[in-house]
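Hi there,

I know you've been waiting on this one. I reran it after we fixed the sequence typo, so this is the corrected version. Both the input and the resulting structure follow.
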Amino acid sequence: MTGSNLCLPKVAVFGTSTVSRIIVNVLQQEGFQIEAIWGQTPEEAEFLSRELNIPYFTSRVDDVLLRKEVDLIVILCTPALHSQIAVKALGIGKHVIVQSPSGLNQDETLRMVQAAQYYPKLCSFLSNGLRFLPAVTKMKSAIQSGFIGARINLVDVRLNMGSIIGKKYSWLCDDVMGGGVLNVFGAHIIDLIHFLTEQSVTRVHGTVRTFTKTTKYIHGIRQIKSDDFVSFQMEMSGGTFASVTLSSQVCGFVQEFHVSGDEGRLIVRNGDLFGHQQDTSDEDIILFQDVSQCSSGLEDPLLPSIYLNGLSTMFSSLADLFRATAVDESNNAKFRSPSSDSKAKFATFNDAQHIQAVIEAIRTSSKERCWTKVITDDWWK
């Protein structure tokens, strides 16, 4: 391990899925040392620890959290455990990264927000890597420089992909347990719209559907209740209108993110950025083409390549953040509180609470078939 990597906190990972394997690989590439792995069963944890050469494994949450050498907790397990683990970790002085969806409801997310407010010197982020995707970074810079005009009028997002349901019944099969395209991918899209527009969502109108209720492997008594198609519109606090369609009914993966203003438009299509300004050619021009490839040798429908690329950049930025704030005291790495500017690009638990409020409003709107106000519980402020 290089001297600069000694400044990085040692990591414990919660989860043994394919996504966990991929993220462990990314963390190791960025110089983080994985000290412990948690699994639902001792067998799962032991298998992954041997495969990835992680020295400690367990199925007991507290045994991981109380390990003195661990300073950073990465939570990649079932969403039902996210809030519980995050709150405990912050309470004993650990930095926390949580996979979206952050929790099962707004109450769980609010407990995370409150814990983060009690310990502001600790990093408490969501693993929303799309914010760090190079094309998105350049899109935001273009918006701020006035490429599309002084204001954003419309955001239009379309995501088409294959099924995210596996061969075994799991939390992905039930939206109440955190499954469905709205929870798994909608959370990232809602956050990205908020990040680019710097506006919060005030009202929504949504349609949430489950078209595929059984598969070759999941049928009989157990049926799929998680959504595989979602379409919703959002009114933003600054006047921007957003339209989003998410579908896991097609083969392949395509994500298009359109942002339009009075003077032009910007489009992120997968990892590439296109632009067009009024009074120029009708064709979109390529502003950025992503030729970088982030590969772990593994694939998972929950982590398409552009999401993996974004996460890789996010963890690289996180490593830089820790290196910049490290203070060597008696050969032990300590960390100063990162500045607000250095943390600004990361999605926080406050953002998670806003995302959860929007998701709940979309589901309510679909049931009641009407525009629904986004209600954010803000007693913690």
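Quick highlight: Residues 328-333 have pLDDT under 50 and may be disordered.

Best,
R. S.
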